[in-house]
Amino acid sequence: MRQIKQLFDPRGLLNPGVLLNDDPQAHLKNLKPMPAAEDLVDRCIECGFCEPLCPSHQLTLSPRQRIVSWRELSRRAGAGESVTDLQADFAYFGLDTCAGCGLCSTACPVGIDTGALTRLLRGRGLGGAAQKMAHWTADNFGKVAALSRMGLSAGHLASSVVGQGLIGRLSGGAWKRGMPQAGKAPLPYRGSGDPVVYFPACGGRIFGANTRTEATLPDVIMALLVRAGCAPILPEGFDALCCGQMLESKGMAEPADAMAQTLTQALLKAADDGRGGYYPVIMDASTCSVRMQKKLAGSSLALLDFHEFAHDALLPRLHLVRQPGPVALHINCSVRRSASDAKLRRVLAACVLQIVEPSEVMCCGFGGDRGFAVPELNVHALRKLDAALPATCCEGVSTNRTCEIGLTAQSGRTYRSIAYLLEECSRAHAMNSC
Fold this sequence. Notes:
This is sn-glycerol-3-phosphate dehydrogenase subunit C. Residues 34-64, 89-112 form the 4Fe-4S ferredoxin-type domain. The longest helix is centred in the middle third of the chain and has 22 residues, at 141-162. Helix 20 (401-411) links the parallel strand 7 and strand 8. The protein is built from 21 helices and eight strands. Helix 7 (141-162) packs across helix 8 (164-170), helix 10 (217-227) packs across helix 21 (418-426) and helix 14 packs across helix 16 (341-349). The chain has a four-stranded parallel sheet, sandwiched between helices. It is of the alpha/beta class.
């Protein structure tokens, strides 16, 4: 090999010392520095497998680059060097534009979730005022939801006067094309049927339907459950409850966990069948469902995301008339991470003949509130969506309300929960009992 190398590269210009090296200590020299930074990411070997899945890749930083940047910041801080310039850039490039979706962990050889690092660092950077606001939000979420709905109504009023485009520009992109109407809490069901506890997540209670004439997501799901012979039970005081995901994503772990604990107690109380067991529990936002499934791990309470319950319990009870389509499908990050995407596809296939699932669109980049606070992340993540959808595709479905807001804004097509499609396809053929 050395003779062949000498013939083709007599001056040793090509990959010198890489494959052939006379230095017996070569394996100990020129090592890439990987200083310890955080236990969460210290196992990262910077392979870059995570990058194609990240919504901020090529906009700001990829997960690999976030880890590299934090390692350098940690190294400088440990060496007593200035970090002011790099830290200021990292606040936006590293933290603000991270969706925290965790898709990076699905490609990582050692399962590193860079979103967990982002949340940790966001939490460390919070001041006293932010912490107090987080605790106030946790203790007064009913008021937060009401104020949010009032803000949406005010936004639509202003939009009707000066135009949607101007409101969008004045809000820095936070006000979206196709912004949903203000939501409302569903009314309790008083009839008979198989008991099922339904907790409408705050996203569907705050952000209502896409139009004034359309039913809200909680009302659609309540109607579907009744149609399938179920008796939906709403947890006591549900409109003041939240799983805490909105705070957890900002690094406010303590008040977020307090909110999850309060919700857990409400679900346990509502689901108690009086015989030592529990009725099934469903939620209608995948991110929130996955969070509460983790919180309830080890308990005997079964909590399902809506599309999982629809697949397991509603499809056998409903007679569906399939629509021709095409309908676009967006599988959000939580569904991908929980590996429940096959059930979602089967529910949609039971409703429509033609499904479009853009292969180059992964995370939508909305990240809860990132689509409002950093709208360029949502725009970048969905830059290939419109071209991937045929002109005949006029609607799409997903399982997270905020994801649907971003998808609607960027594609110009109405995205809704898959519950809407299931309700429409079963509307004329409802079964009266289980």
